[in-house]
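Q: Could you fold this chain for me?
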Amino acid sequence: MADKNTNDATAANDDEDELLEQKHFQHVIDAFLYYRTSSQIQVHRKQQSVKSLSQQHQSLISGLKIRLERMMKAIDVIRIYQRYCFMC
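A: Sure. Below is the predicted structure, expressed as structure tokens.
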């Protein structure tokens, strides 16, 4: 009887481990697929925050606008590489 309970517990743990692994793998795939959209939203929010500042404060972080524009371009480049990965 104890062996049956042990086997049942092991099987339940294996099922739970498999489910956790599937969820993790789906999370990784989702991050890969939605990287561009999510990243663009984040950069856009930062750009809007910068625009909402007074000119005096914007002048203190003048290089940030250029960096955010570069980030948007980099996000697009990464998307090109992602598409290439799916083609291979």
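A (continued): The chain has a mean pLDDT of 87.
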